[in-house]
Amino acid sequence: MFLALRAPTTAVFRDFVLLSVIYGAFSMLRVKLPGGTRISAAYPVLFAALINRGPLAGMAMILPGMVARAYVLGDSPLYIFYTFGQVCISCFVASKAYLLTGAQIGHTVLPVGLFSLLVAGLGFDVSNVGFAQGRVVLQYGGNWLKRWWYALFEERGVVMPVYHALGLTAALLYQDRGLLGLGLACLPVAGLHVFFRLQAEFSETKRLAETDRLTQVYNYRYLAQWLQQEFPPATEASRPQSVLWVDVDELKGINDTHGHGAGNEALRYVADVLKANTRQTDTVVRYGGDEFVVVLPDLGADEARRVVERVHGALDSEPFSYGGHELNLGLSIGTASYPGDAQTPQELLTASDRAMYQIKQVKRMSGATRLAE
């Protein structure tokens, strides 16, 4: 019997059923973080069972909950199968890490036992996140190691450390007070789940409000907030700031000749090129229509011009194509920098817009000259 041998058979079965029910109920409580990772509130319950009943108990306990989740949440059988294996392996890794510290299943002695609990939690988390990101890489591609590192240390913020603390608390209360103690530990888990879920929903709502739906870059609303909040501190610290004003050439011709679907793809292409050739600290914004604005913090005029050259080089190396045809698509990019060209955010935008317009006028004049010849 994989449960504690000292417990009567009826008590063992009762605990197993109740643990399965609690885990199944809490596994329905999932939070989707802004980066896409889903966190389940069932972790403290699973960790408490793992530490007090052993890895086989944890593995058996999660199966009914996962089957129920397939019906209630509509998870695919393949997803359930993969997740079940992922959690089973993570339970095995965590229990081995726990035992290697000299601890015994069901006998955590404080305060020295805290180290064993922390090692077990770390072992579970490292393994679980690794397999979860493996599934993401199989589905969407990408570098597994980078995704694993990002998910483990950056994306989840304070959510998982809090869940880990509750998992340790649940394990100790379950050992000391049985299912009653576990139930007491579950109350703050449910409360925190509601808090994290509301926080995640607020973040998603804010992201959607600040994001252009077509190109998935920021919109004018975000640009206005960014310039109002970030520009003054930069000027006080005498740090350079540059802005690129980007206008898509020939977009109307593409729309008229190939349809608005081609025009939309052209705008997405330009947004991708701008994001790929700027830093993560830079801000790419669709200002409206066929115009984009790129804010370059801490870059002066010379560095901004190098960014422009990099963007034009990317367009030349990978021209835009639609429906199997390469289409004529160019960019007119004006630059302006603080403090040389402007002193305020609005002046900086106006100066970059004016510079873009001058470049566009030069292009039109050179085109007219070639036609005359």
Task: Give a description of the structure.
The protein is of the alpha+beta class. The protein folds into 2 domains: 201 residues, Arp2/3 complex 21 kDa subunit ARPC3 (Orthogonal Bundle); 153 residues, Reverse transcriptase/Diguanylate cyclase domain (Alpha-Beta Plaits, 2-Layer Sandwich). It is built from 12 helices and 8 strands. A 4-stranded antiparallel β-sheet has the order 4-5-3-8, with helices on both faces. A two-stranded antiparallel ribbon has the order 1-2. The longest helix has 51 residues. The radius of gyration is 28 Å and the shape is elongated. The N terminus and C terminus are likely disordered.
Observed structural traits:
4-stranded antiparallel β-sheet; 8 strands; alpha+beta; Alpha-Beta Plaits; 2 domains; disordered C terminus; 11% strand; two-stranded antiparallel ribbon; 373 residues; Arp2/3 complex 21 kDa subunit ARPC3
